[in-house]
Amino acid sequence: MNNIDVSILVNGSTVSKYHDNGQIYIQANEGSEYEIKINNSNPYRVLAIASVDGLSVMTGKTAGTNDAGYIIGAYGSYKIKGFRYSNDSVGAFKFSKKEDSYAATKGKKAKRNCGVIGICVYKEKEIPVPVTSWNNHYHNDWYWFQPNRNPLLDLPLYSDTSTTYGSSITSKGNLLKSDVLRTYGAGGQSVNLCLCSSQVQICDTNTKLSNATVSSFDMGSTWGKNKESKVVQVEFERGEVVLTQDIYYASRMSLVNMGIIEDSKPKVSFPKSFPEKYAEPPSGWRG
């Protein structure tokens, strides 16, 4: 179990998922704005990288698994509200016709990837840190630093879960000069913790579709309303990939045609114009 859950929200409510041969599908209604919610039920931080229609939600360029993403604290969650265009704001995700999508503005090649939301999540790498331990022999011991521990004071760290920090890893996997992450130990003590990174790993998000073809996906995503979403850049060292997930979306008609969902129209019992060969006299009729 990776203890990571991804859901799509419309008007604050979770959209129903349809499962077919290992793939996940949702119904996309034109004009509806949506958010990508990621829950991290692990005792460590994770880095979540998201793409929509094959485009990075951070840069709007062709997505890659070494893109920048969002750091989610231990036992925390975060809602990715849209395409980011500054440290303070995003343009909301909004379902649209494929030809009206943001990807369509990038050309025919990008337009072919409409209809999928991708998530790749990295666990934070554990870092060995030398710590002085006083005992009868007065020697140094080593222990493995867990990301939610303070290596300087050996106290649990608590991050502000109301703020999710953006990763400072660029598309080339290099670190930008960034502010030091400020964290808090027990009793209100504060320490400055800087994690250095030099490793980038690639996760495979390619999935073969069973019942669907590229032409079956008739919906895409475009920019909706401006939304406030403040982030700052911090350093994060990527460990192993703990989740890769694709969520495919299309109109209800397309999903029905794919056989993903059954057409739920009620069956109608139509009256018969010629039910019998001869007329049946009404009760009590006397000729």
Describe the secondary structure blueprint for this structure.
Layout: E1 4-10, E2 13-14, E3 18-20, E4 23-27, E5 33-40, E6 46-52, E7 55-56, E8 70-72, E9 77-80, E10 82-84, E11 89-97, H1 108-111, E12 116-124, E13 127-132, E14 140-145, E15 166-167, E16 181-184, E17 190-193, E18 219-228, E19 233-234, E20 238-250, H2 252-258
Parallel strand pairs: 4-20, 15-19
Antiparallel strand pairs: 1-2, 1-5, 3-4, 5-9, 5-11, 6-7, 6-8, 6-12, 10-11, 11-18, 12-20, 13-14, 16-17
Describe this structure in words.
The protein is mostly beta strands. The chain has a domain of 182 residues. It has two helices and 20 strands. Strands 1, 2, 5, 9, 10, 11 and 18 form a seven-stranded antiparallel β-sheet that branches. Strands 3, 4, 6, 7, 8, 12 and 20 form a seven-stranded mixed β-sheet that branches. A hairpin with a 5-residue loop joins strand 16 and strand 17. The termini are far apart. About 25% of the residues have low confidence.
